[in-house]
Amino acid sequence: METVTALGSDIITSSKLLVALLVPLFGSFLVSLSGKKPNVREAWSIASAVILFLIVATMVSPVLAGKTFYYQLFKILPGVTITLRADAFSMIFALIASSLWIAAAFYSMGYMRGLKEHAQTRFNTCFALAIFGAIGVAFSDNLFTLYLFYEIVSVCTYPLVAHHQDEEAYEGAKKYMVYLTTTAKGFLLPMMVLIYVMTGSLDFPHNIQTGIFQTDANGAIVTMLFIFCLFGFAKNGVMPFHHWLPGAMVAPTPVSALLHAVAVVKVGVFCTTRVMLYVFGTDLMGSLNLGIPTAYFVGFTIVMASVIALTKDNLKARLAYSTVSQLSYIILGVCLLTPHGIQGGLVHIANHAFAKITLFFCAGAIYVAAHKKNISEMSGLGKTMPFTFAAFAIAALSMIGAPPVAGFVTKWQLLIGTLESGSLGILLVLLASTLLNVGYFAPVVYKAFFGERPAGEPYEGIKEAPMSMLVPLCCCSIISVILGVYPNFFMNLVKVVTG
Amino acid sequence: MDFLIINEGFPILSTLVFLPLIGAFVLMFLPGENLQRIWAMLITVATALFSIPLYTRFDMTTAKYQFGEHVSWIPSLNINYTLGIDGISLLLVLLTAFIMPLCVLGSWTYIEKRVKEFMICLLIMETAMLGVFMALDFALFYILWEAMLIPMYLLIAIWGGARKIYASIKFFLYTLAGSVMMLVAIIALYLTNDGSFSIPMMMGQDYPLTFQIWVFLAFFLAFAIKVPMFPFHTWLPAAHVEAPTAGSVVLASILLKMGTYGFLRFCLPITPLATLTLAPIVLWMSIAAIIYGGFTALAQSDMKKLIAYSSVGHMGFVTLGIFFLNQQGLEGAILQMINHGITTGALFLCVGMMYERTHSREIADHSGIAQNVPIFVTFLTIFSLSSLAFPATNSFVGEFLVLAGAFSENKIIAGAAIPGAILAAAYMFRLLQYVLFKGPGRPGLKDLNVREIVTLAPLVFFVFWIGLAPEPFLEVMHTSVDYLLGQVDMAKAGAHIAMAP
């Protein structure tokens, strides 16, 4: 209880949170107004991204010192408000969302112009709106606010998935919407109402232990609500509600990067873990024995998605299934319910983000430069696009969990967490997944650098993608290395979360 | 008369009721279509302005009927002219007063023939509708209830679409069948209460259970047709599709609410035991309406039909909230009545605006028009999101309260309503997908003009006001809802005592 009171006195009411939230919203507005001047439009995107990042960055050190920012916007009903909060948990996500938006803004400028895509204004507007939703999710102080911004992300990313406006795009977008809204309305809405009926409040507490349920809460109902939480936030890609993600691959690559590294999937896992830790709490999850069984359940997703990834020749599809697999690492870590497990899971939000966005950026760069989508067509391409494939290789190492890249930090923490919790089955899952990751990433890199160029296709005229694409993807891969060598920054944040 | 707080000063309720009627009378002698439109606008705006003091001077601490007026009308039959409003009817009166100017505005160019007669019908409708929500004497209530029938019939039959005769007669017959049953119940109550038509006097009497059940069923039929509850809904899609825009708006925003208002005003307090006995059946009927409305709306290619069937589902949520008989459910239901009035009214206005331009209501004829009419599409998106109960819009608050009331009583029935929420998202997103993206668009389609923006803007304002800060709307109903529940609970307690040996 000491931590609660100590934190209680460290709450700062600050409108900075509101400003941070409004920056991408106004950004999207300005972008939508300057459609006729592409340079001005892109300038607004990049300016909003930079401003947002700077605002978020100023909150880091107070949060590391144990402070929590807080700002109430609207009171809907007793116990139901729209309130913003920035604590260590929020900062992990807010930092990656805002920093990667800068990278994605530069990258998409190169990509969209390189391919002469249509409706770029709509694209950039929705891009900014999706970030608005993601920042809102990061800064949610209660379940209602979380749900509100979760839904905003769903709606605002729909036009991005349907961007090409052909049959394939509509199919993917329809699937996207059906999966996400059905699970949200079917699981999250009743979960939220039931929690409200049971506790009279939807506010998150300030620690991960207590949760908001009374100690005499009906265990069967709480277990049901926990399952609703796991499936309701379907953006987390947990099987069997993961099909939307490969379907959403029809989107332009910057969107895939945004969806699969930052805004959408991370919103899913962030919400899932936020609700697990701050609504159910580790005490209740432990006493109802919800942790390890859930870890095994998502362990199935980890292995299964990796196996499917092995079978995909389309690079983006392979990356999509890799994402499905990697996201469950985060949930698995949290469900181990040990400090190292939770830390490993949460730090993977950041570690996976930087690596996966690099991989998608590479896929997009290859498409723009060489118009290749399938891995089998890429042999020998590494010699003409060395920077792209080098970045790809580094990010792939992070996915595999090899030192010195960021993924290693995750894997290390998760392995310790697994040993702490004493479940050997989980250990096997992690090992199997590592091998499978090697299995589906190594051939891509190997073939690109050492494969023979196919006869009759000399790759003439193919060179590296434009600088606005190459620089962001190299930066992201370098950050992945930095996070692997100096893991303390994000580790300090997650240590504040676990207390 | 201890249930009525007599209004000593200016007779505000009578003013509201008779102003439109007087306006309609004057309108008969006004020449020129534009003058007639402006006059109707002036009268409806004046009525709306006159209704504002009802809110500002409303006493939230009492469950008594306020702003009361009581005049003896036909002494030989003991029929009185009694008006009064409480926390349940206040918002409905305000909704009616505020929707009517928008109806006039929305019909400005839509109605091209017989403008004068059209506006007269609308104004008479307004008198009758406001009166229904204020009447505290059953004879007066019944007269006003029936008085709505003729102008509404004319609105559909004269200014309607291709199958207007079929639709208007169907509407007329259904509603009439219901109100005949209601008349029987009213007379039965009149005779049991020593020849009194006073509605508040009929509440809280311990009628025998069998009597209550018969009276309840008679009322129920009348109101269930009006709501409309599945399976009494078949008149609604026909009427909506054929009615002119203003007719659809009046029908959806206000007339449907009279059914649920009837449940709240009559069924619950007058026949509480029957309500308690039959509530489970009504709850399952509500679930049927929610699911049926959702699936049917999903299958429509006509925008008006889609919205009409969505109304069946939404009103199912209202009856669901009412018949769980707890504070959250009832308040959610009343709020949802207002929300449905705002959102569905707005959606019908939107469809009407496009119909004026394209003379089609088919979704397929409007696919991909986002690029041609961005302002219109923005409005449509906001109201569609509100309709599917997107968080931070008005419907979410109502739906949340209804579901909270439902989940605290019966998790199975509450859970059975959830697919309805999913379906609402499905049919609205399907509509939006077509209108926003899927299709070639219609080059040359004109975007909304200033008049149309002015028509829709107030509704957007209310969508977000109720969605983000609903307290001003909820606080006026707390006391009245509490009192209503007290009446039901008292009957329950009385029944237990009577059954004890």
UniProtKB/TrEMBL annotation, chain A:
From the record, give the transmembrane residue ranges.
12-31, 43-65, 88-109, 121-140, 176-197, 217-234, 255-280, 292-311, 323-342, 348-369, 389-410, 422-446, 467-486
Q: Which GO terms describe its cellular component?
A: endomembrane system; membrane
Q: One matching Pfam family, short form?
A: Proton_antipo_M
Q: Which superkingdom does the taxonomy of this entry point to?
A: Bacteria
Question: Which cellular compartments is it found in?
Answer: Endomembrane system; Membrane
Entry keywords, A to Z:
Membrane, Transmembrane, Transmembrane helix
Q: How does it sit in the membrane?
A: Multi-pass membrane protein
Name where it mostly resides.
membrane
All residue ranges annotated as the NADH:quinone oxidoreductase/Mrp antiporter transmembrane domain in the record: 140-434
Q: Quote the protein name from its UniProt record.
A: Monovalent cation/H+ antiporter subunit D family protein
Origin organism of this chain? Candidatus Desulfobia pelagia
Question: Species lineage, top-down?
Answer: Bacteria, Pseudomonadati, Thermodesulfobacteriota, Desulfobulbia, Desulfobulbales
TrEMBL record, chain B:
Tell me the GO molecular function terms.
NADH dehydrogenase (ubiquinone) activity; NADH dehydrogenase activity; ubiquinone binding
Question: What is its subcellular localisation?
Answer: Endomembrane system; Membrane
Which parts of the sequence belong to the NADH:ubiquinone oxidoreductase chain 4 N-terminal domain? 65-129
Report TM segments: 12-31, 38-56, 88-111, 118-136, 142-159, 171-191, 211-232, 244-264, 270-294, 306-325, 337-355, 375-392, 412-432, 453-470
According to its UniProt record, the EC number is 1.6.5.11
Q: Which Pfam families match?
A: Oxidored_q5_N, Proton_antipo_M
> What PANTHER family does the record point to?
NADH-UBIQUINONE OXIDOREDUCTASE CHAIN 4
NCBIfam families, alphabetized: NDH_I_M, PRK05846.1-3
UniProt similarity note: Belongs to the complex I subunit 4 family.
The molecule here is called NADH-quinone oxidoreductase subunit M
